[in-house]
Write a structure and sequence with these properties.
The complex is a heterodimer of chains A (about 325) and B (about 130). With about 325 residues, chain A is mainly alpha-helical. Helices cover about 55% and strands about 0% of the residues of chain A. Chain A folds into two domains: about 1-245, no CATH class; about 250-310, no CATH class. Chain A has eleven helices and two strands. Chain A is elongated. Chain B has about 130 residues and is mostly helical. Chain B has one domain (about 15-125). Helix content of chain B is about 75%, strand content about 0%. The relative contact order of chain B is 0.15. Classes of the chains: A mainly alpha (about 325), B mainly alpha (about 130). The interface between A and B is large, with 65 and 67 residues.
Chain lengths: ~325, ~130
């Protein structure tokens, strides 16, 4: 009976454990699972309605511009320039807009049926968030208030007393004894990663994530449709501002340096070229780290490796430095 | 060619794979924090010892991820080399506290023993 020897003068009824502590946790888990399922039924976390061909074109052309901006250095200047000109012209003229006539007027979400659809989606999500949380909280407040439920194993300052022991109002009781509402909040935060384990990463089970989503929504109230013409114009401007700097500019020099036929230029940016010979792409991180510790430009050796890849005849894809982990 | 825009450095990584790796780390961390939380509760740790225990186990988990999952080369799998050590550590703390509290309460005599438990305990006392 070692556990009774502990310096502790308070014991709780085991019925509290069996009929309050464990049920609250079980109910919260089940409600989370239910929320996830209902969200799926109401049409997935993402948008239900499949966008039309024109709408897809409208968004994908933006992605094309971004891709060109990011990976532009992997293609020669002439290719880059022709793509740049084509895309920026297309953006400016609004050739890829879903509705080219609506270039200059802003869309009223009330009249646009797609906009209505999006607003309904937002409302549904909000309801799904608010209802279960308030129902559980009301349930706990109604049935399980007025007694302590569990002892926290860590001490808290006295400031938490009024919050954690609401409805108990015993002035001398230790702060570590907390009421059922505290257990509710502990579950609310702690079950989040449990839902990740149970339902996968993109679940809709926990309410806290929705709350953060809703606070973000303040910037873009209830999914108002964006003005794609403006986005296209902005992307076109970004594209025009993008400089081009071909990766293979001095590749023959680098190749000779790599095989030790030529000394690296004193002003060259390839600092570690000499000692990264015959290493695979994977070991680039080692060199990168070394370089960083020496105070050299970060990413230089990565650049070198990517050139090496190109020189070995890889296609114009980004070098895959990122491997996948498996469970 | 002396200067590189940050965009071009970013282009050397595959964002999908990085997202997948972060997911994997989160999965490992979630399960580990639930398990270590239960362990801390059963061991009956209180106060700072519990949080120190979490720190130690999180460090150990990070080491295992670093050694077994990334083969000591986190640079291949993540943008930063510290991501393996820090990713999801704080998020796991909440479920650690939840399981720590739950099992501490159940195991360590917060609740008065039920009649059946009392009988079993009395039986053991008699045997001794």
């Amino acid at each position: 009976m070692s556990h009774l020897a502990e310096s502790q003068s308070l014991y709780l009824d085991p019925a509290i454990r069996d009929w309050v502590l464990i049920p609250i946790m079980v109910v919260m888990v089940l409600v989370g699972v239910l929320r996830d399922q209902v969200t799926v039924l109401l049409g997935g976390g993402a948008s239900t309605k499949k966008p039309g061909l024109k709408a897809i074109r409208e968004t994908r052309i933006l992605a094309r511009g971004a891709t060109l901006r990011t990976y532009g250095n992997h293609i020669p200047l002439s290719s880059f320039t022709s793509r740049k000109n084509f895309l920026s012209n297309a953006y400016k003229k609004g050739e890829y807009l879903k509705n080219p006539a609506a270039m200059n007027q802003t869309v009223n979400p009330m009249t646009d049926p797609a906009g209505m659809e999006m607003m309904m989606e937002g409302m549904k999500k909000n309801f799904l968030m608010i209802i279960p949380q308030s129902v559980i909280m009301g349930w706990i407040n109604f049935f399980f208030s007025g007694f302590v439920l569990i002892k926290l194993p860590f001490p808290l300052t006295l400031r938490f007393k009024s919050m954690l022991q609401r409805g108990v109002e015993t002035p001398d009781m230790d702060v570590t004894w907390v009421s059922s509402l505290s257990w509710y909040f502990l579950n609310l935060f702690g079950l989040r990663s449990i839902f990740t384990l149970l339902l996968g990463e993109d679940n809709a089970a926990d309410g806290m994530r929705d709350m953060t989503a809703m606070s973000q929504m303040g910037a873009n109230p209830s999914g108002q449709p964006q003005d794609f013409y403006k986005l296209h114009l902005a992307e076109g401007e970004n594209l025009l501002l993008t400089p081009h700097d071909w990766e293979l500019g001095d590749i023959e020099h680098r190749l000779l340096v790599q095989y030790g036929k030529r000394k690296p230029k004193p002003v060259s940016d390839i600092v570690d070229a000499g000692d990264s010979d015959e290493k695979s792409i994977g070991s680039s991180s080692e060199n990168k780290g070394k370089g960083r510790r020496k105070g050299v430009y970060p990413g230089i050796v990565k650049l070198y490796d990517s050139c090496l890849r190109f020189s070995l005849g890889a296609a114009a894809i980004p070098p895959k430095l990122t491997a996948k982990l498996f469970y | 060619m002396a200067t590189r825009s940050p965009q071009n450095q970013a282009s050397l990584y595959v964002p999908e794979n990085i997202a997948h790796n972060v997911k994997t780390i989160t999965f490992i961390r979630s399960s580990m924090s639930a398990i270590t939380g239960s362990a801390a509760g059963i061991l009956g740790l209180t106060g700072y010892f519990g949080f120190i225990f979490y720190g130690i186990t999180a460090l150990f988990t990070s080491f295992l991820i670093w050694a077994l999952k990334t083969q000591a080369k986190p640079g291949i799998y993540f943008r930063g080399r510290t991501d393996v050590w820090t990713e999801g550590v704080f998020g796991g703390l909440f479920s650690y506290v939840l399981f720590w509290t739950l099992l501490y309460g159940i195991v360590h005599g917060v609740y008065l023993s039920t009649l059946a438990e009392k009988r079993i305990i009395a039986l053991f006392d008699n045997l001794r």
